[in-house]
């Protein structure tokens, strides 16, 4: 509870991953899953969901492809990556920062606003609005924080971006810092991603030597996480950087008003920032020309090992989810039972709903989410009761402990699902789910409730053998 699970020299090597992609992959053989569950401390998602079940010493690389007409994000990652500055500059790297500086703060904010860019970390908040809020605070120091804690099982987008294209993330952070007037930036990278940390640190050093970062302009500090899923939640993440327990903070004030060490802080996800150099180079209007409705531009989606073609794909917003699942991913070998989009703490998409457009509003309307962009298929070998127990076991382990329904209720639900649900147990779980939805301080608890509600709606008959 409110714990860093991997401090004190805990070695991640050869730890079996217990994340949801590995759960559904291993679940085809229940005994293998049970033995993986006994490993402690637990490792939830190593970002190798394309090769599940995974261990920390796996080195297989994912397939990375562009599945849309115009690529904004993954072009360099497909072409072998641009981890060093020379390669990055060869593809126009740091042109966006140069243009931002030449057009000035106001025009930079206008470009980002015109692009319609929304956060890729889960909440889909408009990036320009967040930057403007931080910019408009009373005079004083401001901070940019890059959220590279990518803990949602099924997502390995940020890991690939950091390993293969770290300068794009740094350039995005530098543009954000320019726009809000920050001289310090922090990148919080999860401990489960050592190669990403190394690539990022090397890129920071290169950019400092080249005079792009450092000095009186922008100082970037890389902070390594301690193995706590909830640190991806932006306020818990700020506490972690400050050296406090990783617990979510009450809002308001929002980080853009009062964040790290009390200073106005823009927290942005890795992928969000990796879009920004393109927007400054080609203009917000060119970006906004792609996508659908309020979901502009393109999005990276990562597919798990149950797909015929697991991997990382760049798609244009608005593409039907069915096309991602069946055409791009090639479908699953067994009977598809559901798709988890944006991690386990979100509503499950039942196969009957696959024609939904992959877009923020459309997914929200069916009780699901874009989330981080991980797309995790499960088949008939995963019993729904086991899936519920797995998700709540994860939720209980990673709860920061601030709210009672999350701290106590998630563990209670895990126990309830160790046996087929009695009518009484079912009433109890539904009342805990209602409390999670109503009283949770952060998206960890409400995400558990969203997941549970989708199970009740679409798979209720499988919980007890009785119709819901
Ligand atoms: C439990 C929980 C975990 C989260 N994990 C992450 C994460 O790993 N990475 C991330 O960028 N955002 C994560 N978020 C969302 C962040 O709180 C925040 O909205 C995001 O970093 C803002 O950046 P964006 O506007 O660019 O999306 C998480 C939220 C919750 C509630
Ligand atoms: S819902 Fe409450 S207890 Fe659970 S992680 Fe968020 S703040 Fe912590």
UniProtKB/TrEMBL annotation:
PROSITE patterns: COMPLEX1_51K_2 (PS00645)
Claim: Metal-binding is one of the keywords in the record: yes
GO molecular function annotation: 4 iron, 4 sulfur cluster binding; FMN binding; metal ion binding; NADH dehydrogenase (ubiquinone) activity
Cross-referenced SUPFAM superfamilies: Nqo1 FMN-binding domain-like (SSF142019), Nqo1 middle domain-like (SSF142984), Nqo1C-terminal domain-like (SSF140490)
InterPro entries: NADH-UbQ_OxRdtase_51kDa_CS (IPR001949), Nuo51_FMN-bd (IPR011538), Nuo51_FMN-bd_sf (IPR037225), Nuop51_4Fe4S-bd (IPR019575), Nuop51_4Fe4S-bd_sf (IPR037207)
Domain NADH-ubiquinone oxidoreductase 51kDa subunit iron-sulphur binding: 385-430
Keywords: 4Fe-4S, Iron, Iron-sulfur, Metal-binding
Pfam families the UniProt entry points to: Complex1_51K, NADH_4Fe-4S
Family, as annotated: Belongs to the complex I 51 kDa subunit family.
Entry protein name: NADH dehydrogenase
Species assigned in the record: Mycobacterium adipatum
Highest classification ranks of the organism: Bacteria, Bacillati, Actinomycetota, Actinomycetes, Mycobacteriales
């Amino acid at each position: 509870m409110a714990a860093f699970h991997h401090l004190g020299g805990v070695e991640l090597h050869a730890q079996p991953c217990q994340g949801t992609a590995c759960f559904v992959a291993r679940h085809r053989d229940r005994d293998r899953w049970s033995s993986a569950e006994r490993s402690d401390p637990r490792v939830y998602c190593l970002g190798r969901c394309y090769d599940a079940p995974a261990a920390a010493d796996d080195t297989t690389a994912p397939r990375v492809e562009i599945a849309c007409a115009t690529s904004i994000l993954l072009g360099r990652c497909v072409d072998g990556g641009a981890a060093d500055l020379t390669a990055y500059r060869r593809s126009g790297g740091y042109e966006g920062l140069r243009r931002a500086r030449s057009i000035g703060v106001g025009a930079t904010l206008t470009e980002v606003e015109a692009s319609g860019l929304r956060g890729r970390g889960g909440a889909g908040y408009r990036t320009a609005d967040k930057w403007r809020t931080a910019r408009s605070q009373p005079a004083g120091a401001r901070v940019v924080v890059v959220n590279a804690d990518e803990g949602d099982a099924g997502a390995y987008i940020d890991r690939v971006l950091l390993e293969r294209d770290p300068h794009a993330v740094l350039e995005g952070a530098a543009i954000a810092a320019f726009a809000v007037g920050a001289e310090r930036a922090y990148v919080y990278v999860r401990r489960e991603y050592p190669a990403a940390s190394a690539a990022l640190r090397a890129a920071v050093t290169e950019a400092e030597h080249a005079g792009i970062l450092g000095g009186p302009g922008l100082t970037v500090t890389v902070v390594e996480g301690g193995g706590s899923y909830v640190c991806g939640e932006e306020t818990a993440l700020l506490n972690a950087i400050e050296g406090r327990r990783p617990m979510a903070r009450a809002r308001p004030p929002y980080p853009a008003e009062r964040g790290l060490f009390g200073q106005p802080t823009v927290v942005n996800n890795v992928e969000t920032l990796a879009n920004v150099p393109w927007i400054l180079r080609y203009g917000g209007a060119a970006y906004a020309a792609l996508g659908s409705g309020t979901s502009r531009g393109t999005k990276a989606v990562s597919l798990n090992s149950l797909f015929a073609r697991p991997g990382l794909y760049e798609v244009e917003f608005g593409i039907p989810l069915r096309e991602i699942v069946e055409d791009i991913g090639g479908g699953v070998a067994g009977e598809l039972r559901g798709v988890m989009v944006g991690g386990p703490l979100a509503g499950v998409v039942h196969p009957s709903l696959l024609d939904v457009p992959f877009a923020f509003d459309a997914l929200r309307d069916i009780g699901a989410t874009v989330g981080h962009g991980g797309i995790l298929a499960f088949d008939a070998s995963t019993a729904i009761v086991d899936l519920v127990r797995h998700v709540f076991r994860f939720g209980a382990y990673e709860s920061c402990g601030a709210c009672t329904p999350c701290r106590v209720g998630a563990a209670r639900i895990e126990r309830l699902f160790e046996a087929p649900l009695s009518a009484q147990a079912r009433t109890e779980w539904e009342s805990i789910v209602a409390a999670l939805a109503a009283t949770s301080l952060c998206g960890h608890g409400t995400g558990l409730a969203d997941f549970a509600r989708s199970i009740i709606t679409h798979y209720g008959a499988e919980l007890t053998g009785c119709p819901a």
